[in-house]
What we know:
Helix content is 87%, strand content 0%. It is an all-alpha fold and 161 residues long. Helix 2 runs antiparallel to helix 3. The protein starts with 5 loop residues before the first helix and ends with a helix.
Amino acid sequence: MNFARQVARTLDDEHRANLELLGRLERVLARRDEASRRELPALGSALQRQLGEEIGRHFGFEEQQLFARMDEAGDGDLATLLTEEHDSLREVAAELEPLAAALAAGTLRQADEPAFQRLAGEWIERMVAHIQKETMALLPLLDDLLDDASDRELAFAYACR
């Protein structure tokens, strides 16, 4: 999709990068061969960065800067739904992050591998659905919700987070 507003384009770019990482992780986890095991530490590191960025920066920006504007414009139901999804994703991330860190460091215990597999699968499934929802509903809404000045202001604020 092509979005008119810089904020929507920036969030869409991040969504696309996240989907690419999630797809790679899903493929590696599905293979379960020696080659995939060698890829896991790098993917663990990338996943750990994604969790931090997504939970802190991306979700925080949407909740603090966009959702109140949506509510004022009469789209509060969507903002509420997306906030609920953020909360659900935060719960998964809280359990997944230490396992991703251990994986990245090469210290993930064999006993923790099933938990990592389960939580990574849950993160992938929930994030893909969430990103699709934002791409189809939130991002097009921003093109109408923001004017040029507010788009510039928010894009700058997001870049400085």
